Amino acid sequence: MKKSIASIFVLGLCFCVHGQSIDKIITTNEVSRIEKVLSADDMQGRRTFTPGIDKASAFIESEFKKAGLKPFMSATNFRQEFAMTESKATSSKIIIDDKEIDNKQVVTFSYQPQVSLTEKSDVTVVKINKGDNLGKKFNEYYNSSKSYLVLVDPSFNNVLPNIQHIERISANPGNNTILFVFGVSQASTFSIELKNVISKKSLNNVVGVLPGKSKPDEYVIFSGHYDHLGVGSPEEGQPHPANDSIYNGANDDAAGSTAVIMLANYFKKLNNNERTIIFTTFVAEELGGFGAKYFSKQLPADKVIAMFNLEMIGTESKWGKNSAYITGFEKSNFGEILQKNLEKTNFKFYPDPYPEQQLFYRSDNATLAKLGVPAHTISTSKMDNEPNYHTADDEFETLDIPNMTEIIKAIALSSATIISGKDTPTRVDSTKLR
């Protein structure tokens, strides 16, 4: 991997913090140290509800304490704990038109200990046909409060393992049952018998605060998610050539979490923030953004001035070094403010070049954006051609650490007028969001 420090040294030594250059606070050595810990094999891919995610949380907590942050909302520590409901199937028997269906063809979502359904029950039979938008149809039924028997065309069999891999967890479980049955086209009669073990499981965000000087009740948030996919197997992904099945998530999103820690250190040493800064690493982003959803309910949205969500900044963007993009650029003037603050540098923020990917809605910024907050994700990931995305090859060695360091500096400098209270980004029009 080629790394040219000279080519990315663009922010200059004129930005000083109590006599220190920003380049002496946000350094490649520190970025490397933190990133290596979070993406190490002993974190076991930081999957939610595993010892690996607990270990990652403890490390981030220690970094927040070392930086001198305060706990959030008078908490006794940096853990923002909450619970979710988990469902694990113990048995299932599904008969459609007098034929018993192989359980390998079925994916069920239910939070009831026992389920018995027939064609006479309050359940709707629907189809996902060849050529349909599977993702759109799946989300429509998966997020519904009604019960569905969904018959999926066999042309989608290749995505069956991905759907089977979805965790059965919910913050607010309903009484409905949703079954996706692959390879079956008709269901005139059916009998469905399910048994599940229902339990409560705890998890936590990591949140630290730097109180504002003159505007303590106005909040600026820097966030990333610290969970990833855990340990995979050949049928669940693309293992490392050396049979390494740990999904280290170095770029997704140990890079964002590293940036949050680095920014916490920077702004604490600067120590002149007029608005309160909240630094948070979210849990369970990969499972549906549950950490961000819980966090968003803990403070009034109208007091959140801006949210910088940092997601996959460890590789070069499509424009090369000294650049990143902002999702939902057109939805507020957040990006314009950031770019104006970087006019004297060679760094540039661009609008999201992958609008078809709907990235604005796919990360932890979405929850607060839907409440009107100028909440945007900053990323460099080439989503049309990012070879290590969600694979076991997303490891420390694939990152461009010098470039990532410069991105973190650019984020720090571009946020200056928002943190000082000089600039207030326009609100997102939540009525125009899907």
Topology (SSEs and partners):
Layout: H1 5-8, E1 16-17, E2 20-21, H2 28-38, H3 51-67, E3 70-71, E4 79-96, E5 99-100, E6 106-110, E7 114-118, E8 124-128, H4 134-142, E9 148-152, H5 160-164, E10 169-170, E11 177-182, E12 190-210, E13 215-225, E14 230-231, E15 246-247, H6 250-270, E16 275-282, H7 290-296, E17 304-310, E18 323-326, H8 334-340, E19 348-351, H9 365-369, E20 375-379, H10 401-414, H11 416-420
Parallel strand pairs: 8-9, 9-11, 13-16, 13-17, 17-20, 18-19
Antiparallel strand pairs: 1-2, 3-12, 4-5, 4-10, 4-12, 6-11, 7-12, 12-16, 14-15, 18-20
Task: Give your account of this protein's structure.
- The protein has eleven helices and 20 strands.
- Helix content is 24%, strand content 27%.
- The strands form four sheets. Strands 3, 4, 5, 7, 10, 12, 13, 16, 17, 18, 19 and 20 form a twelve-stranded mixed beta sheet that branches. It has a four-stranded mixed beta sheet with strand order 6-11-9-8. Strands 1-2 form a two-stranded antiparallel ribbon.
- Mean pLDDT is 92; it is low at 1-15 and 233-242.
- The chain folds into two domains: 5-84 and 202-432, Zn peptidases (Aminopeptidase, 3-Layer(aba) Sandwich); 99-188, no CATH class.
